[in-house]
Description:
single chain, 134 residues, alpha/beta, Rossmann fold, 7 helices, 55% helix
Amino acid sequence: MNVFVDSSFYISLLRQEDRNHARAKDALGDAATQSAVFYTSQYVIDETATVLSMRVSKASAVAFLNATEEEDFPIILAVDEEVRRQGYAIFREAKDKDISMVDCYCAALMKRHAILKCLTFDKQFKQLGFRIIE
């Protein structure tokens, strides 16, 4: 099972006081027991580090960035020119005004790599046709 990991999930997982922290831990454990292969994107890493730095601490953001270089971190998918164009198209077609460009790039990556499931707490992924694991 291939699973994409979104920044909302990382943030909930890493912030113990987050309202979705326990759900994130449980969902990660469930996915891991199903031998999931985890993926993410550089934009998700950037967004997560920024939010952690602003809402938690610079140290937690740096610790997260350091973790991205570990062997067991999810596979990082690159956004190339084609994915960028597909992300723009997804953004243009989305009816939800609150959808982010990062989410659109992630959706394009998920489509390219046939990843149907996403660890996230963002409703936009469900609206884009993906199965949310929460």
